[in-house]
Amino acid sequence: MPPSKGDHRTILGIRFFLGTAAEAVERMRQGGLLVVPAAPALKDLATNASYREALLNADLAITDSAYMVMVWNLLQRDSIQRLSGLEYLRELLHQPEVRQPGNCVWIKAGPASSKRNLSWLETQGIDVPDECVYMAPIYGREEIVDADLVALIERIRPQHVIVTVGGGTQERLGLYLKRNLSYLPAIHCIGAAIAFLSGDQVRIPAWADRLYLGWLYRSISEPKRFVPRYWEARKLLPLLIRYRDQLPITPLQVSTTSSSGGSGY
Questions:
Q1: pLDDT tens for residues 68-89?
Q2: H-helix or E-strand containing 60?
Q3: Domain range for residue 183?
Q4: Rounded distance, CA 16 to CA 55, Å?
Q5: Is residue 20 domain-resident?
């Protein structure tokens, strides 16, 4: 079955965009929330309600997970292509409005990585004013509330907000911003993608990214950190086999939905 169902495919209840990086960037110029779900986070789709809600309410989800794409194509005899967060970020950083000082707020995970990433951006001709860098606190699994961040974005009113914190958290933060800002900038949840360019994590060449080898580079560079993470991602396989295009529902969710008379997910 060739990709003839338009420019999206519904996988595990999430509507994934199938276009190019340039097309995705063009769509995000209108504002909205972009998410880049990876397999280690997608495996929790059935049990992590706040993460699931963020993906369902995103304006654009791209097919960053090579594992998901390969399993889906095998199961469905499909031929969708992967669009990685790294490829998307490369395209995004070429846009004049992103390179314009003060038009983009960067949300960083920590001072050390922030310094490396900002230094690399400077080498690319992208100057990020200090006021446009926000050091994210450690957000828990409960509802995210960050009034300081909302106030910063409202004061600067950038066209773009780029979130570089961990997967599973950044999507929830992005949805919080979408719901609590008085206007809708383009909110890009690109996670560690910039770290592969700046050297904050292992640098991943474009050819390796195209060949779905980013996970291997990360695993070799920091095996104790990433091998267990990618091993856990194997749990995505039974979800894809069982649910295909349907949103995963746990027995507890089914029981709750039935008793409340709701239509469920």
A1: 999 999 999 999 999 999 999 9
A2: strand 60-62
A3: 8-260
A4: 10
A5: yes
